Each structure stands twice: as C-alpha cells, then as structure tokens.
Amino acid sequence: MEKLTKEDVNPKILETLLADTDITVEDALENEMILNMGPQHPATHGVLRVLLRLDGETVVSSVPELGYLHRGYEKMAENMSYYEFIPHTDRLDYLSPMMNNVAWVLAVEKLAGIEAPPRAQYIRMLIAEFARMASHLVAIGALAMDVGALTVFLWTLREREKILDIWDILCGARFTNSYTRIGGVANDAQPEALAKARWFIDQFEENMDECERLLNSNRIFVERLDGIGAISGDEAIDLGMTGPSLRGSGIEFDLRRNSPYLCYNDMDFKVITYKEGDALARYFVRADETRESVKIIRQVLDNMPKGDVLLNQPKKVLPKKTEIYSRMEELIHDFMIVNFGINPPVGEIYHAIEGSKGELGFYFVSKGEGKPWKCKIRSPSFCNLQSLPKLIKGYMISDVVAIIGSIDPIMGEADK
Amino acid sequence: MDIKDLVVVKLKEKFPKYNFETSEFRNELTVKLDKKNIVKVCKFLKENEELDFRLCEDVTAIDWAKRTDRFTVVYHIFSLKNNFRLRLKADVDESDCSIETVTSVWKSANWAEREAYDMYGIKFKGHPDLRRMYMPEEFEYHPLRKDFPLMGIPGSLPLPKKN
Amino acid sequence: MGLEAKLKNDGFLATTVDALVGWSRKNSVWPMPMGISCCAIEMMASGDPKYDIARFGSEVMRFTPRQCDLMIVAGTVTYKMSHVVKKIYDQMPDPKWVIAMGACTSSGGMYRSYSVVQGIDQFLPVDIYLAGCPPRPENLLNALIQIQDKIKRSKAREFQDIPLPELPVLQNN
C-alpha cells in the first residue's frame, strides 16, 4: 500500500473519490490521505484495486477499479461456436468450474430447444453441488485467513482436495474440467466416483464441525466480523446483490427455488437466510449452505436414475466417438457440428442459475449461425462488488479486508 | 391472469400513447419501446405494487452492424414477487449514441451501464460517474463493436519495456 | 553479494564458495506468488497439506517482493496488469528467478484476444515455462526442483554488485 499524491491519481477517479463533500482537492490531501490498495495484495481476492480515501484510519469513501483480468470473453464468444466455448467457461468462476459449465450448457440447450436425459441431469446436479461446496470451503478458509485464523484455511483446503480427487476420477481433470456437453455430460459417472462421493459426504460433516468449532465461538473471529459491513435487504437488492451476500441480509432469493432448473424441484433442501446483514451473517450462510449441499448430494446419489447420459439428437449433439469411426451418418454429423456449429434458431434467451456467488446468467442473441451474435455473461461477483463502496464506508482499513472476504468476489468472473 | 399478459395489460393501460412491441420466445417476454420513454416505464415497473420489478439484473447492448439503429440497449429485470423475468429493449442510433440512464430507478444499473459504455461507446445521459470499466482510461476504442478486430489494434495498449 | 562478487576466477576457493552459496540459496527459495487467476488456485493447492511446498524449502510465501527470490507468475497477464507485474519484479532484489506458470503466461494460452499479453517473456526474463492449464501441483513442484538445480549450478560471479535502476515514480492510472 502506498501513499499517492494528486498527480498520480487519474483525475476522473479523484473527482469521484472527492464527490460527496465540499472539500477541495488541496484541503483533502492535507487532512486526509488517499491510499492505494493495489491489484497485487495478499488480502484482495484476486486482482482488485481499491482506492481508499482515509481520515486517519477510517474510510471516508472508496473507488474500486476492475479490469486487471479482462480477457475479452464476450468478444471471443462471438468468434467461436457454442461447443468451443465450454473450456472458457471453466475459467470464469475458477473456484467452482463445474458450475459454470452447467450454466452454459443449460443456456445453450434452452436456446436450441433440447433437454438432457434424466441421468445427465442428476449428474449435473451432483457436480454443481460439489462445486458449490468447493467454492464455499475456499471462501470460508480465505475469510478466516484474512482475519488471522490460518489453520482453518489449511483444513478447508484439505477437504477441497478430496472433492478435486472425485472430479479427477469422474472426468480426468482435477480443476477446470470441461465435463458437460450440450445434450448431456461427456461420460457416464463411474461407480468408483459415486462410491468416493458417498464416502466423502459421510465424513464431511464431522470435519466441518471441527472447523466451525474453531471459529464460531472464537471471540476474536466473532468480534472482527460482528456488525461489520452491514447492509439492509432493500438496499442490497437495489444494488443488484444476489447469492449468499443477499441471503445474509434477510431476503430469501434462491434461483433453485424461484425459477427452478434441472431437477431441483424434486429435492428437499432449505434456503438459508439470516437477518442481520453483516459479515458474520454472510459467513454463517456459507457454512450452512455447505451442509444443505450435503443433503442434496445424498438425495441425488440415492435417487440417480439409470440410462444414457447423452441425448440422441444427431443435429445438435455430438455423437459418441466409437460410432464416428465406424458409421457414416455419425461421421457426417460430427463434421458438421464441429465445423459449423449447432445452428440454433433465430432468437434470444437469458438463462440464469444459482452459482456459488449469486446469479450467474448467460444472454444469447442468435442469428441462426453456429456462433452466437452476442453473448453476455451476467456475473454475480461484478454485481456484488458494486456494493463495496457502500459497505466499507465508515469502517477501518482492517475491516475492509474482512468485508471483501465476506462478499467473496472472484475476479475472473467480475472482469470477464 | 397469466403474469405475462398482466404485465402487457398494465403497461398499455398506464401508457396508452407509447407503442410497445411484444414478442415471446422460449417462454420469455420481450418488450420493445422507444428510447425516450425508458425511464418512465422503468419507474412504473418498479413502483407498481403488483408488478414489483425490484431487481435489475443486467444492462447491456447489441451491435447489429447496420446503418440505421445500430445498437439496441437491453435491460433484464426480475420481479421477486411473481418470479418473473422481463426483457426491455430500446434502439439507439449511431449518430446520437446516447440514452437516458436508469440509475435513478435501480442503483445496480450503475456499473452495468459503465460497462456498456466501455464496450460499445453508448453514452448514458445523467449517469453519475461515466468512466471506462475494464479498459484503461487512455484506450481510444470500444472493443465489443463489430468493427474492432479480435486481436486488437497493435500499439493501442502500452507494454512495459524489458531491460 | 559483496564478497562473492570479488571472486572472479575459477580456483579452489572460488568453486568452494560457489558450491556453498549455491547450496544454501537453493534450499531456501522463497517464492513471491504473483497469483492473478486460476493458476493461483493450483499454486495455493501446492502449499496445502497434500502437496506441501514447504518441504522443498519454500517455507513461506511472502507477499512482499523485497523478501523473495522467485516470482511465480500464475494467471493471465493482461496489458493493464503487465505494468504492475513489472513494477513488482523490479522491486525484488537480486538474485531473482521467474517461473511462468501455465499456458497463459507462457504464450497467451487459450486467449487470443485484444487485452491479453501473448507471453510474459515480452517484458520479463523467464527461467522456466510450465505447461498446463492449470499445471497440476506436482508439475509446479517439478519446476521448483528444476530451478533449484539451476541455482546449484550458478556461479557467484554472475551476480555482481549491480546498482538498481532508479524507478520512475508514476502510476499508470
């Protein structure tokens, strides 16, 4: 963190920073200080730059600056077919990569008007809930590490490694696995993977209890987070927050219940809400959501139907590899789909799922070609970060770190 | 009454003189309107108690790459009470590349409109803080326009020197 | 660095000092995690109990460049971020090494777009390129061992007393 003079800061940012009072630039920099919490910082989750205007140690106003990880996803999506973009969606919210894959293929299937077979839908639910658990484990661990409890980070990472092992058996890659395909999933879930999933959820509750025992009644942890970064439910919704941050402020909004997708209608789980709206409430929402995910996974494993995992629709779904090499129609369809794309009808759709940070949505405009004419990614971290200036106003610098940890932004998503 | 018909009926009731074009695709309702009426319509949609569109999910734009009405600004809004999502569209011509901002109705449109400005160059009149979002301030082009190449324009973004 | 800089020839004393210094340097390489995106998560995973990087001597990952030897650039470097990476590299004291972790830093990776630098060797001298998207933690540990071999073979006279360049005091807002 370094102190800036007024020549160093871009004039437009300076204007915004000093906007809400009638102090002029010269006065401001004598009594107050502009501090740069730069893109490379151990406590900002990724490359987020926050310019803070401080009066002593209290934050008077702040301006977050994004764009340090802007990779041009939307422009690339206009130049590649729907299938080719699936590996790119892994890298959006890189802590829960399977969830983004599921979101993308659900949106493309809605546009093309097809639906995956039931076994594929159950497998997608399984991996989405595992992805949610993996993301929440890192979020809890990073939040605990930011306020000083270093042990919890290593324990939650140990649990996460077990989830990554399950994904390794399932699809071959432990991380950034592009497992879903349009019309289903890439390959069937092996019995070892399902057995290991069952073993994992059986021993997970105890380990989670162990981590929580270190934190929930720890006076330092609770006092550092209690009452910090409070926001009311109405303001949160007006600012566009969704996900655990919104549910920590009392509004019961979960896309798995409000506009259900996959087979969540048949699953029995609670939507966790806490009323207080501060950082501690958001932490509790995440911790309890991991337990609800365990319940959902248990129900999925008990009720998994048998059958195909890829839809049999040759014009839209890639055929199986073994058939391509031996039969003529499959060869032709494979060639057409890989080179020209799936050619959905002309139109536009928006489809959103409940990601681990909030509502992850894809908006497609299709002109009937294999590539989308426009693709917009509505990322939850981008909208949650918008509330950051409001949340940290009036608190100290060390609270800024705790608040960013409790919102849990991922810059790969926020910067697209 | 079905929520889709309810929305259309109420809009036509309250604003009889505005012309709305509605269309439906894959069970989603899209309402297209004139860009000068956008703030009034959005305010009505948010404040009406039966409709209650409190969450503005996204503001974005489409570049059609044609000579008239080159851009279309698209709003996605969600009503928690009815669990219903509505899409509003307004055409913007390239000659007067601007539209009124809806940040007075929903604060979440703030950053989304900044992103639309950065990527497409559409100015939002009355926006409290219209700066670029992702690209550095000195960048002169708007990347998501169809005439901007995917690999970028060499020399438009500076790189530090290797010593 | 002062004493070794004066040993300019190969002789019994110089090679013994070289070997000693090389051995002590390689067994305590402290990395500076320049974690930008997905590869940073695998770098964190290489520090967790399963793939423990601390047993190779990298006991701590200091986030301040002034106390580090090795910069692991993990994640896609965009043009906007490249100035920040270079600034941090300049702040590290000699001797320093750079690992370009992952496909994005080696060559731009899967991102052929307007805002991604196609390979960080356009502005940083890189010692080891790691392939993978992201590379597994075992791959990162392999790279660390290779860097340790490189350090063991280095001679003390390669690190003369070089005065640091004066850094300009401007920001790139």
Measure the end-to-end span of chain C: 36 Å
Shape of chain C: globular
Sheet having the most strands of chain C: 4 strands, parallel
Tell me, rounded to a whole number, the average pLDDT of chain A.
87
Chart the SSEs and their pairings:
The complex is a heterotrimer of chains A (416), B (163) and C (173).
Chain A: E1 2-3, H1 11-17, H2 25-31, E2 33-37, E3 49-55, E4 58-65, H3 73-77, H4 86-90, H5 97-112, H6 118-146, H7 150-171, E5 180-181, E6 184-185, H8 191-215, H9 219-225, H10 233-238, H11 244-247, H12 255-258, H13 279-302, H14 321-324, H15 328-340, E7 347-354, E8 359-366, E9 374-378, H16 380-385, H17 388-392, H18 397-407, H19 411-415
Antiparallel strand pairs in A: 1-2, 2-3, 3-4, 5-6, 7-8, 8-9
Helix pairs in contact in A: 5-6, 6-7, 6-13, 6-18, 7-8, 8-13, 13-18
Chain B: H1 3-14, E1 21-25, E2 28-33, H2 38-47, E3 55-63, E4 71-79, E5 84-92, E6 98-100, H3 109-120, E7 123-125
Parallel strand pairs in B: 2-5, 6-7
Antiparallel strand pairs in B: 1-2, 3-4, 4-5
Chain C: H1 2-5, H2 12-26, E1 31-35, H3 38-45, E2 70-74, H4 79-91, E3 97-101, H5 103-107, E4 128-129, H6 137-152
Parallel strand pairs in C: 1-2, 2-3, 3-4
Task: Explain the overall architecture.
- The complex is a heterotrimer of chains A (416), B (163) and C (173).
- Chain A is an alpha+beta fold and 416 residues long.
- Helix content of chain A is 49%, strand content 11%.
- Chain A has helices spanning 11-17, 25-31, 73-77, 86-90, 97-112, 118-146, 150-171, 191-215, 219-225, 233-238, 244-247, 255-258, 279-302, 321-324, 328-340, 380-385, 388-392, 397-407, 411-415; strands at residues 2-3, 33-37, 49-55, 58-65, 180-181, 184-185, 347-354, 359-366, 374-378.
- Chain A has a four-stranded antiparallel beta sheet.
- Chain A is globular and about 80 Å long.
- The mean pLDDT of chain A is 87.
- Chain B has 163 residues and is α/β, with parallel strands linked by helices.
- Chain B has a single domain, classed as Beta Polymerase, domain 2 (2-Layer Sandwich), CATH 3.30.460.80.
- Chain B contains three helices and seven strands, in the order αββαββββαβ.
- Chain B is elongated, with a radius of gyration of 18 Å.
- Chain C is an alpha/beta fold.
- Chain C has a single domain, classed as Rossmann fold (3-Layer(aba) Sandwich), CATH 3.40.50.
- Helices cover 35% and strands 10% of the residues of chain C.
- Chain C is built from six helices and four strands.
- Chain C has a four-stranded parallel beta sheet with strand order 1-2-3-4.
- The radius of gyration of chain C is 17 Å and the shape is globular.
- The termini of chain C are far apart.
- Chain A binds chain C through residues 4, 8-10, 13, 36, 38-42, 46-47, 67-72, 75-76, 87-88, 90-91, 94-95, 138, 154, 157-158, 161, 164, 174-176, 411-412, and chain C through 34-38, 40-42, 44-45, 48-50, 63, 75-76, 78, 80-81, 84-85, 88, 110-116, 133-134, 136, 169-171, 173.
